[in-house]
Amino acid sequence: MASMKSIAFQDEAVEKMIKHIKELWPSRERQIPIVFKAPTGSGKTYMTEKMICDLAEQPDWDQNVAYVWITFSDDLAMQSKEKFDKYFPTSKHGRLLTIEDFNLGALQKNDVLFLNWQKLVSQAAENRIYRRPDDPRMRHESRVYFEDFVDNSHENGIEIILIIDEAHLNLTDASQRDVIDPLDPKIKLLVSATPKKETIPTQDEIEDGKAGYVRIKHKDVVDAGLIKANLICQTKEELSKYEYEDEDHILLRLAIDRRNELKKEIESFGANVNPLVIIQLPNDDEELTKEGKPTKEEITKEYLISQGVKANRIASWFTGKKKPEGLELDDSEYEYLLFKTAAGTGWDCPRAQVLVMFRDVKSEIFHTQTIGRILRVPIMNEEVSKVFRNGYIYTNCSRKAVEEAEYTEQGNRPKTLIAHNKKGKDYVVDYKLLTDFISRVDYGDLGKSGEFQQCLFDTFNAYFGIKEDDILNATLLQEKISAKGLDVSADFKHQIAVNGICHEYEKIGLLLKESDVISREWSRSDVQKLFSLHLVNILRSQTDNDCKVGNIVRSVPTLKSAIRLWFKIYALPNENEDRWYRVFLNDVVNKDDSSLFRRLITDTLKNYHPLLEEQLQKRREKNETRESEPFVLRKMYAFTEEYEALPETKCLLTPFYLQKNYVGRKTEEAFAKFLEQQDCIEWWFKNGDNGKDWLAIRYYNEVKQEDALFYPDWIYKKKDGTIGLFDTKGGQTAASTETKNKAEALQKRLCVLNGLNRELFHYEGGIVRKENGMWYYNDNANYSYQEGSTDGWKLFAELFNSASVHKDVKYEIAAADDTMMAAEDGVC
């Protein structure tokens, strides 16, 4: 907004918000919602800040209220704070605070605190410094945590109005639990251009004083000259002008042409505005990068420069990198901006007038929120603004791929949680307690690429009737391939949306879905990515056990290389790889179930299976020679945010993290509480279930007919030096053959350990189950389980009886040696 003089619809919206707040304030209810729905570009930030300032100056309003303004990024939080001083430098508002101001202790009347959701909801260690640890021992006396800041504010009689910016993004279960509930605001102001339907109050709720609703009409914002009147999609005629160019180049070419036209038109009005083209790149270039092929970013930059655009006029803004300085200024020298998602939501640049959107071949979804970046108008002068009344969109997305302006949650991605060993260092309980490992034999991939390539050549050539002597005769090769129904001359096209004009941003999804279409050849870079994508899909679709591929990511490069070599040597030796890919994709995509290549790849995988099994057997034989190592309890362990901290005092790790949702959660949580209650336990440890950082015991899995690793759930150490290794089971898992194999392997290992460590440690362990409201364990050499019976099982509590001291902690030397030898012979 060039001038911050209020517009009529803005003043009206501010008055309605203030009216709702005053009417709702006497209510005994808390967290009363007021939904503020305003189109992108209408000045939501300005109006919300004006509401705060105007409310402070109301003669009939003198409440001890402060405001907490929450956005979904630090940049937006700071942007909102900076606008406050810019718009209202002399207002009666209180202090403008950030998360770094928690040390002030509490909010005061009319303060505005700007926060980023992610800093409060995130489980990342670097962000948890703002949250008060549940364990008092972990708290820093000099630090004021979020909870302290809020508690102090409430104790001082300060009520809170919570302003949730982009509420459609940020009103989540996590934010409600971790932020909104602790704040317990009197009123929640939900600000959004596209509020979720379930948050919009009914007329009855408004009339009954349970909610408020303020809405700004799209037409009012357009009529005021704040946003563009039309959003225009590429036309069929425009695309046809460059019919034989690569699709990527065509879209860029049209954007260049449009920018040049706009520049001349703007200059004719004497306005100093440099129109910006924003180019959204896909997120699926990873495969091209691995292969050393040019990415969409490289293709775009190279083409722009080839068309006379100076390199210093092309800006880039990607996640993790700072936004180019001065990008939003009307007279900025930047003419083109390349981005992926960084500029997708919440960024204002009114001079942006042209949008190029390249589709992501892995996901056809075309989210319309990015279009909001070209919605605003830089100059509101009625005559001059005519040149800014239209925004232009150039995209290779198909109309079926368009989704309305739906927003997914941002932030709150799985972050690392850290648990520290109370010993303060890596800790070896017993150097004789070894952890086993099995070097991975089967990576689930296609093994040796050379053997697979030859198998593919043999399979493909047998089908097409190609012999080694044929490779010198390209014409004969094509005849043989064509005779089997493979079209080597077919194009590979897709349909993209054209001829769309939208007069209302919120309805652009519907417009594009109903637009005309034109058939175009895929770009070279998209064809390369689609080739890899469909190889993944073909491997993923295999259901025959002789054809299944476990590790598809590792297998695709081998399969891709083999197919390319087959085309190069046997099928189309005189064509380039782009042509090979198009022939392949035309068959796989357009013929679908009747595809020749799908059939031949399946046949190749089946023919290759015996060769792969032979490779795996050789690896297994080599693996038998690997040795075990002493088990180390690490100084720290990392967990994902799928875990949560639970109360504990004796767990060796602090905090104690347990996965939130999984089968067996209730059993393991109950057993941890049981261990906590035992006075004789010095510490206990919850073992992991895979990887080298956890205790593993090798056993033979009779079901899978292979060696495997067993990770006992629980390790504990008693004050008398006894070490326990136990695994909790519930229901049918206790009766499985796999559990029997694990239980018996565990007993053999315990027998060996008690022989080796006769003078230092005693070991006990087994399988644990809960029956009759009590814990039982089975430590028999021959494990058995009978549903509804505890015969052969012992009460676990007896292991913790203070009168029960292990008399066999110190064995006779000879007896211990005999035990060890028996265990090694498999009879212990």
> How much strand?
15-25%
Low-confidence stretches: 402-415, 803-827
Backbone CA Rg: 34 Å
Task: Going across the biggest sheet, name each strand in turn.
Answer: 3-4-2-5-6-1-7
List how many beta strands DSSP finds.
33
The DSSP helix count reads: 23
Largest sheet: 7 strands, parallel
Question: How would you sum up the global shape?
Answer: flat
Gap from first CA to last CA: 83 Å
Helix/strand/pairing class, anyone? alpha/beta
Query: How much helix, percentage-wise, in residues?
Result: 25-40%
Could you tell me the mean pLDDT? 84
List keywords for this structure.
828 residues; seven-stranded parallel β-sheet; 33 strands; seven-stranded mixed β-sheet; 18% strand; flat; alpha/beta; disordered C terminus
